[in-house]
Amino acid sequence: MDSGATRMRALFTIGIKKSILGAKVMNAESEDLGTIEDLILDGRDNRVAYAILSFGGFLGLGDKHFAIPWEALSFDVSEKVAVLNIDKDRLKNAPGFDRDRWPDMTDPEWCSRVYRHYGYEPRARGEQGASERSTRPERFL
Question: 6: closest CA among 38, 18, 134, 14?
Answer without folding.
Answer: 14
